[in-house]
Structures are given as C-alpha cells and as structure tokens.
Amino acid sequence: MTQTVPGFDRLTIEPDKLGGQPCIRGYRFGVDQLLELFATGMTFEEIREDFPFLEPEDAQQVFAYAAALAQRDFYLPLQESA
C-alpha cells in the first residue's frame, strides 16, 4: 500500500520498496539518493540526464523534507571527558 509522506504529496512510502524509506512519486528512487547526488555537486540538469522521470517539483519537495528533518529536535550522546 502506497502512502504519501504527510505534507509532501510527491514523496511516497511503501513497506516493500527500499525498506520503507521515502521515495519520489512511487519510483524506486529514494529521497536520500537525490540528496546524495546533489551533495556530490551534480546539478539537477545532470541528474535528469540519468533519471529523466524527475521533475523540478520533486527536488523542491526533497529539499523541504530534508529541511523539516533538520529542524527536528534530537540529542546526541555527549562523550564524557577523560
């Protein structure tokens, strides 16, 4: 069963696809994959050469999703001083 990520209608989750990680519009292409490609310095146009199904709105939602995750409160364990 396909579900969309709340607030992100282009990002979908399916338990049997990519281990339930968020994908772009039901494709076997994860949000993390697109972020990693951008992180390597590729432009959207370069990425689209390899993945022509991607649309600019997909990238916008991936960045918005990443920003929302970055705003979540979480705590890293502190290392004790020796």
Rg over C-alpha atoms, rounded to the nearest angstrom = 15 Å
CATH topology: Arc Repressor Mutant, subunit A
Major sheet strand order: 1-2-3
Q: Supply the CATH architecture.
A: Orthogonal Bundle
- Which sheet architecture does the biggest sheet show? 3 strands, antiparallel
Shape: globular
Which superfamily, in CATH terms, is the homologous superfamily? Winged helix-like DNA-binding domain superfamily/Winged helix DNA-binding domain
Give the helix tally.
3
For the record, give the distance between the C-alpha atoms at the N and C termini, rounded to a whole number: 51 Å
Give the class from helix and strand content and strand pairing.
alpha+beta
Describe this structure as you would to a colleague:
The chain is globular. The protein has one domain (3-68): Winged helix-like DNA-binding domain superfamily/Winged helix DNA-binding domain (Arc Repressor Mutant, subunit A, Orthogonal Bundle). Helices cover 38% and strands 13% of the residues. Strands 1-2-3 form a three-stranded antiparallel beta sheet. With 82 residues, the protein is of the alpha+beta class.
Topology:
Layout (H helix, E strand, L loop, with lengths): L2 E3 L2 E6 L9 E2 L6 H9 L4 H7 L5 H15 L12
Antiparallel strand pairs: 1-2, 2-3
